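Input.
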Amino acid sequence: MTLRRISPVLLALASALAISACGGSTTATHSAAPSNSPKTVSVALSWTPNTDYTGVYVAQELGYYKDRGISLKVLPYASTPPETLVAAGKADVGFSYQAGLAYARAAGKDIVSIFSPDQKSAYAIGVRANRTDIKTPKDLDGKIYAGFGSPDEGPELKSVIQNAGGKGNFKTITLNTSAYQAVYSGAADFTIPVTTWEGVEAKQSGKPLKYFRFEDFGFPKQYSVLIIASNKWLKADEQTARAFTEATTMGYEYAAKNPAKAAALMVKANPGAFKNAKLVTESQELLASGGYLTTSDGKVGVQSADQWAKYGHFLYSNGLLTDSDGKPLKAEPDWSAFWTNKYLP
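Output.
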């Protein structure tokens, strides 16, 4: 089970022990490895192992990092958000999502997105598939939303419901990881699952969900998974940053073309982490077949100025971005400073 939308202040405690691993023997083809001794690159996970991270584990297992002079150090999910770890120099790179990065950077943290594993959002409004009374987001008026405590959830849902012809009035209960069970049991009416993980898990358990995708109701697209770094780290060792991003690109390219093999490598790299390896395989196959991992022309990792600006404007116009003192920003940020494709091969 993965949880990407949880507010950083609500993160539960987890192991902070670092897991170091080196790659295998597969020879990569993009460029030669640096001639100097291996550089350690630490990556902070935003949750327990799941298919958001498959490309990184593939690159690790197939030796793409090793071939580029990188010794990868995976920092497991912990109580400190990746945005904080990266900005403070406690991790070189980390996993985030568009709103999470925007909140942190608006508050003064030195972070920037350098890679987008997902090319379309995996978030959607989810209700039990047998709810015949809920045919459109308009029908969510007066219903109970099981949420995660992130400030963007309420305004997003209100916007979608209103765009569907409703008033946007609903009750919110913050349940975090219990949100899905609340919907399954009928204690809540809807939540926001990650369709490529919780959605697959729900179907496998015999409790399928049906979805209303935000972008189908006039809401701007958003990046549900990002890889971030600090400008300080990027500028201090651009060669290593490029080598990391190149190897990561190859890992996600492999995962897009070989989802079953990539899932097997993911499971292999995390012994004991998955009670149900079939969940990993079906999730990865959905990511590959559903167009989540690549653009229409087959590229991975790239980000769009238009997508950053439109979703960013939503966050700003709803007063969700605050400075280091907790006060709403007085001017909309320059969104081009929040992301870059510069380090992609």
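Residues 1-33 have pLDDT under 50 and may be disordered.
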